[in-house]
Structures are given as C-alpha cells and as structure tokens.
Design a protein that fits this description.
Chain lengths: ~400, ~325, ~325
C-alpha cells in the first residue's frame, strides 16, 4: 500500500493546490500514470503513480495542502483496497473534477467515469448528438449536465476540448448576426495559478520600481557570422546554436564588467550579487515562464546552448520544476521572431535590469558618408532607477552593444 | 291588477334600493374601487322592478350587461352583489364574473350576459324545459333596443312562437344601443311591432310607470303561464347615465338627458302618485330612503370585508365533478 | 422619411385615412363607429373626411360580416369592425364558412378583399367574454390570413398591406396597446404580410412572440440580461402566413427557443410553432422548445385571478431560464 503525498518539487516549495484527480476511487492505474495534478504559483505538475495498483483519492480538490501531506492511497490488491475505503472515507468528489489530460495517453480499455451501463438509453439533445457524431465522439463516454443528466452542447464541447486541447474554433458553426450590439464572452477563464502570479507580479513591478528603458541598435553582422560558423560545426545529435545562447553569454560578459547592474533591492539595502544567473523568457501554453541558465559567465557558449535547449523542451512539455525558475539575477526577452524592434520590457523583481532583444533586419546604414546595407539588431534595456542611474545603465547597454558588434570581446 | 298599499310601498322601496345600489356602484367605480366596466340602469327602475314583481320566485330571468336592477328586483342580495363587484370569493360568481356576469340561479336568474342578444337562445332553452317539465314556470328575457336587431332575437322569437314557449320578451327600449340611436337602426321603428311578424302579441308600455309595467307584463306572464305562448313587451324608458361609466355620450345632448330626468324619472313619478293618493308621506319617504341608504352602506361594507380569492382558484369551476 | 411618436390608435387612423384617400372602394362598417370614432378612437376623423364611407350598423354581427362579404365579392374593399375579438364567434359561419371558403369552392372565380378587424386581449378585468385572444381559431381555418401587430409603426405598415391584399385578413390589435406610442414613419409606409421583425438581437435564446406579449418579452429580456442571458426577440407580426425563415435563422444561432403568447396554452399558436421547429430544426435544438400561454380557463374578473391566469413578465423570465437549464 502506498501513501500518495504532495511531492516537494523545489527547495523553497512549501505547499501546493490539489487541482484534480485523474481517476476515481477504485480505478486501476499503472506505474507512472499521472494520477493527480497539483499547482504552485510557478508550475502545474502531474504526479505519477508510484506503482501499479488501485487508487483511492481522499483529499478534496481545490484545496491547498503542505508538501508531504497524504492526499490519497494506492492499494496493491483488491482486498487491500476494500480495507482502505473503510478506514479512510473519501472526501474527494472525483468524478466531477476531471481535468483535461495534457498528454494523449490512451486510458486502457476500461470505461471512463460517468459512462452509461450497456443497454441503457443515452439522453442527449439533438444538437449534442449531431455534434458528437460529426466529431466522431462516443456519447457513452460523455457526461451529461442537462436535466435528467441529458448530454447537451457544452458537454460535447468539453469532451472535444479534452480530446484536442483548447479548441481553436467553435465545434459547430453558429449563424453569425451583424445586428447584435452587445458583447458576450466567447471564453471565460479564471485568473489563477501561473496567470495569477504573472498578473500580480507585472503590476507590482510597475508600481513598486522606478523603471525606464533605453534603446539602441547594434550592427549584427559579426553576431550573425559567429552563429553561422558555430552551426557549420554542428554534428549528430547536438542541437543548433541559437542567438539567445550567444546573447546570454554576451550579457553575462557585460555584467561581469558592470556588476552593479546584477543587483537587487532587499529591504533598505542594495545587494550586488556574486553569481550571475540569466533567465530567458519563454512561452508555454498561454503563460510566460522564465527558466534560468546558471552561471553562464563560467560556461562556454556550447554549454549554455545545451542547457537552454533542455529548458526549452522542459517548458514545452510542462516539466519545469520550481528550481528551474528560481534565483535569476538578470533576464533576456527576445521578441525578434515577431519583427519587434524596440520595446519597453517590464522588470522582474527582485531583478533590477532586463535586456529586450528585437529582430535582426537588413537596413541601410551610413558609415563614413557611405550608405551600406547591414544586418542591425535592436536592443532595449529596462532598469530600476532607484538603484541604477542612467549613465551606468547606458554604459552597460553600450557594453552589450560593443560585444554584439565584436564578439571576440567575450574572450578578452 | 290590484296592488295593495303595502305592496306599493314595497315596490317603491325596491325601486329606491335599485337606484341607491346603482348610484353607489357609480361612486365606487369612480373611486377606482371596482375593476373592469359597469353599465348602470339608473332611470329604468320601473321596468326591472315592475317586471320582476309579477313573477314567481321560481320563474326564470335572463339578464343583460345592464342587469343590476334585474337582479335586485328578482330578489338578489346587494351584499353578495357588492362582494362580486369587488371581485371577492364570496361574491355571487366567486369573483369570476363581475358586473356583466352576475347570476343567482337559486332565484331563477340565469345570469347577466355580456354578449348583446346572448340571452335569447338561453331563455328559449328554459322555456322548452319548462314545457317539458310541465312546471308552470315562465321565463323572461330582458333585452335592449339594440339587441332587437340581432339574429338571435329573430330566431328566438320565431322559435318561441312556433312552440308556444312560456317566455316573455321584455325590451327595455332606452332609445340608444351604446352610441347608436334606435331611431337610426330599428327598422319599422317599433320592437313590439315585430311581434306580429311572428304571430304573437306585442305591447308598447310606458316603461317609467311601474303600475303600467306590472299590468302589461302581468298580462303577458299570465298568457305564458296558461300555455298560450310568448309575447313581446316594449317598456319605453331611458337611462340617465351613459352606456358605461366613463362614456363621453356625444351621441345625445345634455338637454335631452336633463329633460328625461325631470319629466320621466320613474321614482319621482311613483312618489308623486303615491303621495297624491296618501300612501306616501314625507316622513315615510324619508324613513324609507334612510333604510335603503343604511342597507346599501352595510352591503358595501360587507362586500369590502369579504376575502379575495386565492390566485389558484382561477383554475376551479371549469367542469362539474360527477 | 421622418418619424414622429404617435399611438397605435392614431397610427391606424392615419393609415386608413391614407388608404381611403387613395382608393374609393374602401369603406369601414361596424357598430358605434361614428359617434366616438370607434371605441378606442381608432377611426378618428375618418367619418368627417369620408362621409358615407364609415357606416354604423345595428347589432347584427352575422349581417355585418355578411355585408362585408357581399361587398367584397362585388368590387369593394371593406374593413369590417367587429368591436371585440370575443364577438367573432357570433359570426363564425360568415367568417369561416363563407369568407374563408368562397374563392376555393367556386374554383377561383371570385376574390374577397376583406379585412375583419377587432381589438383583443385581456388585463382590464373585462372578464370572460371581453378579454380573449382567439387568433388560433382563424390560423386553423384555411383561406384566412391573420395579422397581429404590436407597435404603432407596425400597425400602420400592416393595415395598409392588409387592405391592399386581395385575400381575407383577420386583423387583431390588443386593447391595451391603443394608447401605446412609438415612432411611425410619415407618408407611404408598407410592411409586407408574412414578415416578422427582430425587436431585440441576442445570442442565447430565441423568444418568439407577438402583440402585447412583445413588450413583456422585452422587459423580461432586460432582467435576463442582468444574469448574463442575451435573448433574441422575434415579433411575428403576421401569424399566417408565418415567417419561419426568420425563426430558423435565429435558432441556428441560439439553439434554444421559447414561444410566448397571451392566448391560452393548449392548442395555442405556440403549439404549432413548437411542432414545426421540432420538425425542421431538430438538429439545432439543445433543449426542447417551450411555450408560455394563459392558463386553460376563461379569463376571470377579479384582478388577482386575472393576473394569475394571464402570462406575466416573470413567467417569461422563468420560462427562458428553464429552457436554458438554469436554476430559476
């Protein structure tokens, strides 16, 4: 018999919200099946089953529990399970809180919770039947929330979302009406979890710091050339070099020469950090995450590139742990993929500076009276004027620009 | 027809009662205490009281939208009438009928009908039933000059005539059908005159002379009760108020109305006649009027004290239970 | 076209005045028309303007309608005023056996361009014989068209079209709407028969209604809006022929339908509409079509009883929520 507990996912993690159970009491699970989902303010995590067995959820979803708290049990046999349910009555309303599974893992051959016993007529509205049929859904697997447990449109839409992830368009074309003057939400989402954290942090950043942004442009010819040369040597499984990896190294080098940029406000004191940890902003699902590359000043571009790629994969697969996101001292945000030039990124307290990177674009440039076409890179620096003044900030940005234009400065 | 002194005073008091009831109803309506619409018969008391006074208690009466006088004359209780006008559950129709549809079947009143000329087919049915049951009852259908032009009048007169039904068609010709003068719409100019087309007697009566009404209607009732068939009695009278309360009355002049009030008020006329013959003194008159006033006031209070029906009671009385 | 705010009563008088001016074969016949210009003043000024063409009659409904039929068969365009919808039954033979069937029975040799007009509806304690909504009977009679407007502009546009239509049209106007005002275009303004109107756009439920209930539904929609429900309200205007396309387009957007009428529920027009929606829009329904109508009793006199029997705004709100599977 296993006790299912809230796992400790990071050094500083103390508690998590139990978002949902993936199974009901009595269901059979296999080792590593994701059995429940927890959420901290940094990550959402699927907890795997420690072994094959029969699951018995106990704790209620929607509540927050401390790390190591037992929230359920995994029995290794039917007899053990029978004993368990008598000793530990369930508080979990398992069937109602089915959360969407992120990965497409088939759920074995057993019937899903809420399924209709064979031989019973399934109640569904005509619209729901048509929708289910045109999308190849089995009505027997859909739970109905209409009167008398009738399956209605929203139940089918929910089932579709679970199957395909967030629907891009309405599952059934609806007649449009240009005469309607009001507005109705096509989607409503609660501000919780990671979104809540970003929501609060962004506002707090702008209201509690004295931030402003500087902009400049650097000639990117050398940078582009360096990346091309590095990628010529890429062999085998090694992933291609990204601009971000090189920029992390450039920023780290610049920070070494301008340590006061790598600082934070702590109460009434300014702390200038010894270590440099650079976060790189990434998009996941629909939230912003900033995993951190550790001590890039002490690593090669190759090492940084490898680490960055691992973080990218983890972000995409929703496998980032709190430790991946903690303790950054500086951040890079790259919006060049969307043709953005200059922007005014928002600081991520307690960091006091953030480098915004725009696109690399061929432009006409005047050099010694002549007009040349050159690849140019936009750079923006947001900094906290409470502890970093304009001139030092400008000098730092200039240092970044200089290294971009002459990458050999990284090894001098 | 002999009418004793006591009977005359009783008739007089009855007319006063009808008048007082109608005036009070008009007052209450003006104060918005009575919902819907009301049609007052002030000025027609001789016709209703006179006619009903020659009927047995078990004789039938089919009344009209202007039927309060018919009801009281036939013996209905003003208390329960007010209860009905106020829409209370203990009114004659449990609040479901209102002014236009008051009935008391225990007194042979087959209801007031809101459809003009709606009473004719009903009284034919009553007459036929009387004949089959051989009870010696008669039925009176009150109607106005307007109803005389409805198809139902002609079908009914015809049918009553061929079957010699014990019914009397009592017309209260007050010269106007809503806004339309009888002078314009009544072909032949006479309702009693139509009787000859059906081979039955027709009588024209001064409808404001109660003794005259009693005499002629009495004659028609006797004929009917003896099995000699129907008659048409045309009581010529006048209504002092509009077709309904709130009627702007642009179809007749104020002069005309005042003229009739002055010269043809059935109560005044009877009062004068009774005074002349010594039956009615000023004191007696005052006493009677006071009694009537008290009676009506008590009836109003009664009506207002009655409970309203529960909303769900609207669903009751649709069918009879076996 | 400029618009002014006038009442349904004035809109009717204005429209009829324009039509009678335009076509001298049009006349009006009925009871009590000249002294007060109609019981709701709806023929204001017409008798004075067109002497001899507003005709008072004795109380003889069978012959009033009969006169209309005979005149219509011999080249005239009568508007027959039957005073109250409740009096239609007194001339049922003339309306349903003669007016509705003559053209058909004689193989198309004749036409009957007649409008049979009356106020209908309850809510004034006028009791059982003066408060009815009887449109179902005439919708159920092949050969008749049935029109029931709600607002003054619709009254004007529809009465003109009804008069110009060569077929018999039964035209009801709710008693309580004669004083109702609204914007009405000046001059020539025609609304074709057989076309409904969206009085309020919405996305969540289609409410199909007509006559006075249109206003109740609009009020209900404001209450529903507070709970996040946007109702689309269709005022049918013409009941027969029915504008089913308008209904279909709406339900293809909202997937939910509620029919609201003041006539009593059983056998009311709502039953016919609901059946048709079920037949023709089955796959678009996320819930059964529901109907709101008066309780199946004669209209009682006492206001507390009448209010219970006739549909009220709260009944529409509750009905809409039930269709949408929300707790009332």
């Amino acid at each position: 018999m296993f006790e299912l507990k809230i796992p400790k996912l990071g050094l500083t993690m103390e508690e998590a919200k139990l978002v949902s159970w993936q199974y009901s009491s009595g269901d059979e699970v296999k080792k590593d099946d994701p059995i429940f989902i927890i959420e901290t303010d940094k990550v959402t995590y699927e907890v795997p089953a420690p072994s094959d067995g029969i699951i018995h959820p106990v704790a209620k979803t929607g509540e927050t529990y401390p790390v190591e708290e037992t929230v359920g049990y995994l029995a290794e046999s039917r007899e053990e399970y029978e004993l368990l349910i008598q000793e530990h009555p369930s508080g979990a309303g398992a069937v109602e809180e089915m959360a969407p599974l992120k990965e497409k893992k088939p759920v074995a051959e057993k019937a899903p919770p809420g399924a209709v016993p064979p031989g019973r007529r399934i109640k569904a509205s005509p619209l729901a039947r048509k929708m289910a049929s045109s999308h190849g859904l089995n009505l027997a697997e859909i739970k109905g929330t209409g009167p008398g447990a009738r399956i209605i449109r929203e139940d089918v839409e929910r089932a579709l979302e679970q199957r395909e992830g967030a629907a891009e368009e309405e599952p059934i074309p609806r007649a449009a009406d240009k005469g309607f003057p009001g507005k109705k939400a096509r989607e409503t989402m609660p501000i919780t979890g990671i979104r809540r954290a970003i929501f609060d942090n962004m506002f707090m950043s702008l209201s509690r710091t004295a931030q402003l942004s500087l902009h400049t442009e650097a000639c990117a010819e050398a940078l582009v050339g360096l990346r091309d040369r590095l990628n010529k040597q890429v062999r085998g499984e090694e992933l291609r070099f990204s601009f971000n990896a090189i920029l992390v190294k450039i920023a780290a080098t610049a920070l070494r020469g301008h340590p006061r940029i790598n600082a934070s406000v702590d109460g009434d004191e300014i702390k200038v950090w010894e270590q440099i940890h650079i976060g790189v902003a990434m998009e996941s699902e629909d939230a912003l995450l900033v995993p951190v590359v550790r001590n890039p000043d002490l690593k090669s571009i190759r090492e940084i590139n490898r680490e960055l790629n691992e973080l990218i994969i983890k972000t995409r697969e929703n496998r980032l742990l709190p430790d991946d996101l903690a303790n950054g001292t500086f951040t890079i945000s790259n919006l060049g993929f969307a043709d953005i030039d200059h922007f005014t990124p928002i600081l991520r307290p307690p960091e006091s500076a953030l480098l915004g990177v725009g696109r690399i674009v061929e432009k006409p440039v005047v050099k010694e009276g002549e007009i040349l076409s050159q690849a140019m890179l936009s750079l923006s620096l947001t900094f906290d004027h409470r502890i970093i003044d304009g001139a030092p900030a400008a000098r730092f940005l200039k240092a970044v620009k200089d290294i971009v234009e002459d990458p050999l400065l990284m090894i001098v | 027809m002999r009418t004793t002194k006591e009977e005359k005073l009783a008739l007089y008091k009855k007319m006063l009662t009808v008048r007082a009831f109608e005036e009070k109803t008009g007052e209450l309506f003006a104060q918005n205490l009575i919902p819907g619409f009301i049609h007052l018969s002030i000025g027609e008391e001789a016709s209703s009281v006179g006619t009903c006074s020659v009927l047995r208690e078990d004789d039938y009466v089919a009344s009209t939208h202007r039927g309060h006088g018919h009801l009281i004359a036939k013996g209905a209780d003003p208390k329960r009438m007010f209860a009905e006008l106020f829409g209370r559950k203990t009114g004659y129709c449990k609040g479901k009928g209102g002014s236009m549809h008051i009935a008391d079947f225990s007194l042979g009143i087959l209801g007031a009908n809101g459809v003009v000329g709606g009473g004719f087919p009903i009284i034919i049915g009553a007459g036929l039933s009387i004949k089959l049951r051989k009870t010696g009852q008669v039925g009176v259908v009150f109607f106005g000059d307007g109803a005389a032009n409805r198809g139902t009048f002609h079908e009914a007169a015809n049918m009553a005539a061929i079957w010699k039904l014990p019914v009397i068609f009592v017309c209260e010709n007050n010269l106007y059908a809503s806004t339309t003068p009888a002078a314009y719409s009544l072909a032949g100019g006479s309702i009693a005159g139509r009787a000859s087309a059906y081979g039955i007697p027709g009588y024209v009566v001064n409808g404001n002379d109660i003794l005259e009404v009693r005499k002629i209607v009495g004659k028609a009732v006797k004929q009917a009760r003896e099995g000699n068939g129907p008659s048409i009695v045309e009581n010529k009278t006048y209504r002092f108020r509009g077709h309904f309360e709130g009627d702007p009355q642009r179809y007749r002049t104020k002069n005309e109305i005042e003229d009739f009030k002055r010269k043809h008020d059935p109560i005044q006329l009877f009062n004068a006649a009774l005074a002349k013959e010594g039956t009615l003194t000023e004191k007696l008159d005052k006493d009677l009027r006071d009694e009537v006033t008290t009676l009506i006031e008590e009836a109003v209070r009664y009506g207002q004290d009655q409970p309203l029906p529960q909303p769900e009671e609207a669903l009751e009385d649709l069918y009879t239970n076996p | 076209m400029t618009e002014r705010i006038i009442s349904c009563s004035d809109a009717l008088a204005e429209a009829l005045g324009e039509e009678m001016e335009r076509d001298e074969t049009i006349f009006i016949i009925g009871e009590d028309l000249t002294a007060h210009d109609g019981i709701f003043g709806q023929f204001k000024g017409l008798n004075a303007r067109f002497p001899g063409r507003v005709i008072d009659t004795p109380i003889s409904e069978t012959c009033i309608v009969g006169a209309g039929v005979g005149a219509a068969l011999t080249g005239m365009r009568p508007l027959v005023d039957l005073h109250f919808a409740d009096f239609f039954p007194t001339a049922m033979d003339e309306i349903t056996n003669q007016t509705a069937k003559i053209r058909y029975m004689f193989g198309g040799q004749a036409k009957i361009p007649i409008v049979i007009w009356a106020p209908d509806g309850g809510g004034l304690s006028a009791a059982a014989q003066h408060s009815q909504s009887l449109e179902s009977w005439f919708i159920h009679t092949p050969g008749l068209k049935v029109v029931v407007p709600s607002e003054p502009a619709d009254v004007k546009g529809l009465i003109k079209s009804a008069i110009r239509d060569d077929n018999p049209v039964v035209f009801f106007q709710h008693k309580k709407l004669f004083a109702q005002t609204g914007p009405v275009p000046e001059g020539e303004y025609l609304i074709p028969l057989g076309k409904g109107d969206i009085k309020r756009h919405g996305t969540d439920i289609t409410i199909i209604t007509y006559s006075r209930m249109t206003y109740f539904c609009l009020e209900a929609a404001e209450q529903l809006k507070k709970e996040g429900i946007e109702a689309e309200i269709i005022d049918l205007r013409t009941l027969k022929p029915l504008d089913f396309d308008l209904i279909a387009t709406s339900i293809q957007k909202t997937f939910h339908a509620l029919v609201v009428h003041e006539a009593c529920l059983t056998g009311g027009f709502g039953a016919e509409i609901a059946a048709r929606i079920g037949e023709e829009l089955f796959d678009y329904l996320d819930a059964p079509v529901m109907r709101i109508g008066a309780k199946d009793v004669p209209i009682p006199f006492s206001p507390v009883l009448e209010r219970y029997v006739l549909p009220q705004v709260e009944d529409v709100v509750e009905g809409a929520k039930r269709v949408l599977n929300r707790q009332p």
